[in-house]
Amino acid sequence: MNKSAKIYVAGHRGMVGSAIVRRLNALGYLNIVVRTHAELDLCNQAAVNGFFADEKPDAVVLAAAKVGGIHANNTYPAEFIFQNLMMECNVVQAAHANNCQHLLFLGSSCIYPKLAEQPMTETALLTGTLECTNEPYAVAKIAGIKLCESYNRQYGRNYRSVMPTNLYGENDNFHPENSHVIPAMMRRFHEAKVRGDSEVVVWGTGTPMREFLYVDDMAAASVHVLLLDDDTYQTNTQPMLSHINVGTGVDCTIRELAETMQRVVGFEGKLVFDTTKPDGTPRKLMNVDRLKKLGWEYSIDLETGLKKTYAWFLNNVEGLRQV
User: Which of 257, 224, 223, 245 is closest to 290 using CA atoms?
Assistant: First the structure.
């Protein structure tokens, strides 16, 4: 893709979107188009159509999404399925209608069945029952994959999808209840340290296993997939299986995560696991063989990533999002 290409990054203020903008700029792609939610509501079809008609982007990165952890997914299921479906339908259709040939859709590892064989390969999609706590969100993301595949099949578009594992890093949502496990846990440990608490309570049994990817690695992988030439991409994908897993291929237990977090934050109390809270999926590990064949591997390990994230957290703690 030419360095002067106009690239629209939807969700540029979010954790992933902001990292993708940084990555594109670092590679010399400076013609980046962005809009805040106040400037463009992606759930408003007429507004999205008007934006695409005016801007005519050469490529789109759809990083905008309604996201959250177990608590948020359980509490707001209607918002999670409705908003995500509306955003992806509006953006993909408007991109096609305005002859935008290149689009990258960002999904989630929660698209795979709750009891999928580990590590999860792309072929596991739609082979079993989803985890009930985030099923509405997962269904919306599966629809986004199939949306891209359908436009590719019918119209010859080059719309690609990447499915990241659990992400973390700067610009994350650090709300103690409505966020994902790492930012919620980091804030809890930090505040406990500041207060001088004797213990920190972690949800669940601590036995589920999770894989985590630092957001700058996710951005690098996303841009790598977006910029791949057609021959390389098509050799490693199939028309009906176009999504690509993005992760490290390495996981740890929630207990191990909590112990690493305790060390990074410097909390000296004890850990307590609240077994009355849900664990979610027993294990979520991505098979990233396809991504490796496409020429990309992660570079930031968990402890290094947590240190980077905590340094950012300390510099931004006063302005953290609360919802």
Answer: 245
Domain ranges of the chain: 7-319
User: Known binding site for substrate: residues?
Assistant: 188, 203, 210, 279
User: First vs last Cα of the chain: how many Å apart?
Assistant: 37
The three-class DSSP label of residue 203 is strand
Evaluated on CA atoms 169, 108, 271, 174, the torsion sign reads: positive
pLDDT attached to residue 72 = 78
Over the chain, what is the mean pLDDT?
93
Read off φ and ψ for residue 102, nearest 5 degrees.
-115, 125
* 137 belongs to the catalytic site: yes
Asked if residue 119 has a cis previous peptide bond (ω within 30° of 0), the answer is yes
- Residue ranges of the chain whose pLDDT lies below 70: 176-178, 236-240, 318-323
Q: What is the pLDDT of residues 4-46, one digit of tens each?
A: 999 999 999 999 999 999 999 999 999 999 999 999 999 999 9
Q: Model's pTM, two decimal places?
A: 0.92
DSSP-assigned beta bridge partners for residue 246: 164
Of 29, 112, 137, 151, which is the active-site residue? Answer: 137
Known binding-site residue numbers for NADP(+): 11-17, 106-109, 141, 164-167, 180
Q: Which amino acid, residue 80?
A: F
In tens, the pLDDT along 38-83 reads 999 999 999 999 999 999 999 999 999 998 777 778 888 999 999 9
Task: Mark out the alpha helices in the chain (DSSP H runs).
Answer: 15-26, 45-55, 70-75, 77-97, 135-155, 181-195, 215-227, 230-235, 254-265, 289-293, 302-316
Alpha helices in 98-242 (DSSP H): 135-155, 181-195, 215-227, 230-235
Q: What residues form the annotated binding site?
A: 11-17, 106-109, 141, 164-167, 180, 188, 203, 210, 279
Return the CATH superfamily for domain 7-319.
NAD(P)-binding Rossmann-like Domain (3.40.50.720)
